[in-house]
Amino acid sequence: MQEIRIHPKGPHISRLVYGAWRMLDGGLTEQDIERNIQTCIDLGINWFDHADIYGNYGCEEFFGTVYKKIKSKLPELHFVTKTDIMLFSDKYPSRKVKHYDSSPKHIEESVNNSLRNLGIEKIDILLLHRPDPLLNADETGVCLDQLIETGKVSYVGVSNFTPSQVSLLQSRMKNPLITNQIEISLKKIDPFINGDIDFLYQQKIRPMSWSPLGGGSLMRSVADLQKNASSSEISKHEKAAPSLSQIILDLTEKYHTTENAIALAWLLRHPSGIIPVIGSNSAERIQQMAKSLDIILDREDWFLLYQAALGKEVP
Ligand SMILES: NC(=O)c1ccc[n+]([C@@H]2O[C@H](COP(=O)([O-])OP(=O)(O)OC[C@H]3O[C@@H](n4cnc5c(N)ncnc54)[C@H](OP(=O)(O)O)[C@@H]3O)[C@@H](O)[C@H]2O)c1
């Protein structure tokens, strides 16, 4: 697996990261989780993305239960996790509303929980999950620096932050914010247009892309199109104005690959060094996605997909 340096002062990380958000969906067993971890390792994906809140505060613990059992047989794994979202959850019955808490007290508690749940001694990258309107940049900046200095966390970053929110927090810190994990995909192209990616690129901060397949909706549209391929009405329409799904399907033939790999190759082609965080619970699909690294989409193919995602020709 290729690696990429996430920031000039940050670590090299696997070109794809495996996300654990959906791990408790679909009744996965401990054996399934072990299989998916092993599949990732076999493919060279050795970075795992978590958050304290995933699975209603259950994913880190479930993953950690499996990981603690098999850790001694595995190569070193690396962990991203997140803090500051306070879910309105049965786990916290006294909470009145979903909110954010970027206070040092909450961040420290959350870090300690994540370390314990995952069974690790250090979090490789800690992200503030969502921008907190009540963020006290001075206090939170000091807290993040201290977590690095005390050795609980190696690096810090943010998620879903605008450029000005990144700049504000960074202005109060000694250590660099090494990534901003944002939603980027063929279903969510705004970051290419609204300046989010340009800003990160300019700052030499690699963006991590969450839901790189649009949370699966993109792939489900492709599958629907495949099912309806025999309908002449759809074929006529597709001929006149090929949809994003049709273009993805055409490109799977041209590049001898799967639709998952085409959608990820589109992100990987961007020079800012987008790092997709993949979220499939299927070992077969994880393997398909790793093939995206063997594909370099040619410029016009990239634009065919971009045009379809945009819904019109570029100006
Ligand atoms: N920072 C944030 O705010 C934030 C927000 C959301 C997510 N994340 C991170 O990003 C990671 C990835 O997000 P995601 O899970 O939404 O990513 P995704 O890769 O866009 O979507 C994964 C979903 O797509 C489905 N899928 C994939 N290929 C498919 C196909 N060919 N046909 C039908 N369905 C297909 C998967 O189903 P199968 O399991 O059946 O393959 C899975 O349900 C998360 O795990 C989390 O770590 C971060």
Structure, explained:
- β9 (153-159), α6 (163-170) and β10 (177-183) form a beta-alpha-beta unit.
- The chain has 315 residues and is an alpha/beta fold.
- The strands form 3 sheets. An 8-stranded parallel barrel has the order 3-4-5-8-9-10-11-12, surrounded by 5 helices. A two-stranded antiparallel ribbon has the order 1-2.
- It has a domain at 3-183: NADP-dependent oxidoreductase domain (TIM Barrel), CATH 3.20.20.100.
- It has helices spanning 30-43, 54-57, 59-70, 104-118, 137-149, 163-170, 190-193, 196-202, 217-227, 232-240, 244-254, 259-268, 283-290, 299-310, and strands at residues 3-5, 12-14, 17-19, 47-49, 78-83, 85-86, 99-100, 123-128, 153-159, 177-183, 206-210, 275-278.
- Bound molecules: NADP nicotinamide-adenine-dinucleotide phosphate (NAP).
- The site of NADP nicotinamide-adenine-dinucleotide phosphate has 28 residues, from α9, α12 and β12.
How would a crystallographer describe the biggest sheet? 8 strands, parallel, barrel
C-alpha Rg (nearest Å):
20 Å
The unique ligands bound to this protein are:
NADP nicotinamide-adenine-dinucleotide phosphate
Give me the CATH architecture of one domain, please. Alpha-Beta Barrel
Find the CATH topology of one domain. TIM Barrel
Portion in strands = 15-25%
General shape: globular
Tell me the series of helices and strands, N- to C-terminal: EEEHEHHEEEHEHEHEHHEHHHHEHH
- Helical coverage, percent range: 40-55%
Total helix count? Answer: 14
Strand order within the widest beta sheet? 3-4-5-8-9-10-11-12
